[in-house]
Please model this.
Amino acid sequence: MKDLDVICIGAALVDMVAKVERHPLNDDEVFVSDLKLLSGGAAANTAYACAKLGLKTAFIGKLGPHDGFSDKIINDFKDVSLDTSLIKYSSEYGTGSAYVALNPQGDRRIYAHSGAANYLSKEDIVFEEVTRAKIIFLSSLKNLEPLIEAAEIARKSDIPVILNPGMLIIDQELDNIKQLLERIDILIMSQREYISLLNIQDPELNEKIILESSNILSKLGIKVIIITMGSKGAFLMNRKESAIISASKIEDVIDTTGAGDAFSAGFIFKIVQDLNYDFEQLKINVEFGNFIAGRCIQKLGARNGIPTNKELVGFLD
Model:
């Protein structure tokens, strides 16, 4: 029985966000004007956003043994009625954390310590849990085994799998992550991730370069490829068509942290309502992802700008 719209699998961390006037140079020191403790982690951010948007959402990841950080993560999940019953706990490692420096332009530097998150194992992925969902969403974990296992279960059960890899996966290079890519249906990447994964020399992506470079991904069986390109919007392609979907116009960018995670949540929100790969419907899904990402970057942190389901009424009309 599908009692969940989506299960998000990956890392849940606590972000320490420092506001700085500038980023430091080598052997340099900068003053921190404000320091906040926020729940984070790519998959956890997307899970939180999905739940806040109104989807029945669960998260699978590994936390420390009820330390202060894990308690914060669980409490924040419960604030949006997210199902925390599938979360695993480590007896050896503490909950992961990330240290984020943010300047007035919204540019950030991140140092991530995965902690328990990276010790989610293949054995932690349970068939009866994964198959409760209509969609499986996978994101940034250096350890690929649990993601591959979840994708394999989902594929055998005809459940669409979405991957938003992050640089922890992309940095492992194409040949080493093919086993995961072969098991997913929709691939969402940032422009930087796409360029790095396919070793593209021209940093100015255009439609011609993307179409030529993406053949190798399509041959792996991936049905839909989406490249998020910041203020330029997102490039969408399936095996027959492609288009650039314009971004929402934002005048006041406060913090770009979590913009990609928010995009994924917006995309999931729409696709779970109509599980097909029709190109016109995919364009609507991407447009909504752009909208949610645009809302996200107008507030500090990856989650504060995400609208609730009630706040969506006007847009959805």
About this structure: Residues 279-296 form the longest helix (18 residues).
